[in-house]
Amino acid sequence: MNNQSTRFTIFVCIIAVPVVLVIIPIANFFLMSFWKMESNQIVESASFGNYLYFFSSPAYWGTFLSTLYLCLKVSAIGVLVGYPVAYFVWKRKGRVKYLLILLLILPLFMSYIVKIYTMRTILDLSGILNKLLVAFHILEEPSRQFIYNQTAILITMAVIFLPFVILPIFLSLERIPKNLVTASSDLGAGTLTTLRYVILPLSLPGTVSGALFTFVLALGDFVTPQMVGGPNGFTFGRVIWSQFGLAYNWPLGAALAVILFATALMTIIAAGWASQQRKV
Amino acid sequence: MHKTNTEHLIDVFLGLITAGTFFVLYMPIVVNSIFSLVPSDRNGIHWGEASFEWYWRLLENESVIAAIKTTLIVSVIAVAIAAILAIILAIYVEWEGAVFQRTIELVVYTPFLMPPIITGLSLLMFFDRIGISRGEATIIVGHTALVLAVLYRLVLTRLRAMPHTLVEASADLGATRLQTFRYVVWPQLRPAVITGAVLAMAVSFDETLITVFLAGDTTTIPLRLWGMMRVGFKPEINALVTIVLLVSIIMAVITAIRIKPAEGNEE
Description:
- The complex is a heterodimer.
- By secondary structure, chain A is mostly helical.
- Chain A has a single domain (46-276), classed as MetI-like fold.
- Helix content of chain A is 75%, strand content 2%.
- Chain A is globular, with a radius of gyration of 24 Å.
- The model of chain A has no long low-confidence stretch (mean pLDDT 89).
- Chain B has helices spanning 5-37, 53-60, 62-95, 101-113, 116-129, 136-161, 165-172, 177-206, 211-214, 221-231, 235-266, and strands at 40-41, 44-45.
- Chain B starts with a helix and ends with a helix.
- At the A-B interface, α1, α3, α4, α5 and α7 of A face α1, α3, α4, α5 and α6 of B.
């Protein structure tokens, strides 16, 4: 065996595993999205039927659009809360700073399903949120408006995905050279001016990519809507998931997943582009 | 340096938002741990009757024990396979002048970047097509695909920090490739692989969105918890939840301690 064919053999062996694990399954479900279901059997006939069905039924693309809007809100809340928090922690010094950021990202390691469950117990009719609101006389009596609806999904996602926004913002703040901030204040700029003209523009790329990744996470989630959304809390992810459960229509599920895949891919590319725009 | 009044106000304001965030992120965990120890009902919380009773009951619950076993088996095997693959891929990409290097990396990172539902359903349909029925083995494959990205990233970073002259010196001194790996490369990679393995195990323990597609009748801890939660609220759930949280916190702290000095060296 000559050297070149040995190299080629090694290449094929090494690339084989990722290809089998990732590329072939994805290609397979792209293919399956053109098939269809007939009397509970998957029929291998190529057509755009599933896609046409998606675009012609308002229930499906309506859910898709409302899910995009929901994920946008989750990301927006993440940035609005996460940025001030990341900024505050970044301003601390030494050990306190390290400890605080560690504690803020620690929840990322905690069981996902458990976080959703505890959010459900808090938002529930007899939960702590209602107890607090009644105790402070904001509500007259416990309300069902925080649980088993779209609001519940929004609140839960916003809370469990928050660390995913805080971390990239904090890291992009850390990357800003301290002398730029010092120079700004030496030239007479106040905290707010420095924030507005130095820190915000320099940390913007990291913030945007953090927000976009959170968007993707929220987009594909189907456990949160299932657990806190109740019967009306449908999101696009949950609709796809149901095609593999009770609804049992794999080809349609595959077509919907292709749409999700394309949306996530565009978002990730945008996030990658945003993070390359960093100026420091 | 003296701060102005406005700056103080801003600091206080930001501090309050941060405190609020901590409250929101940690209150659920605290509340949960308390209710796993102290019984409560409509009449309120019975502080006097706190006990570990629910923890003992968990030990008698066979489905929970089975789920714990599966979770451990899956994570150990998946992490071991992924670690070996990650080392081979990283060495190949970094040193052997891989063709299509970017493409290989993109493929490795895909399961981590894409929503888990994509990885889950694509593997489900793939296994179905080639006639493999769902069970522990399919979960292991799914988890391997997911944690490979984590391990690959950490191993590659370590490999890049290691001077290639070490390997050349070893070869010059007559060592075979295997000896070079065993005595030169592996000792350098080991810390990164261990950190990656702990991190990957934490990810695997918690994985829900891919696992649910690949599990069939098998259950892991997150799936078992999800099942229990559908039925209702019980102190038993809280007890299991508290154990799961404790384990994940311990693993996170180990990772944090191991990663911190490494970051310090790179700077």
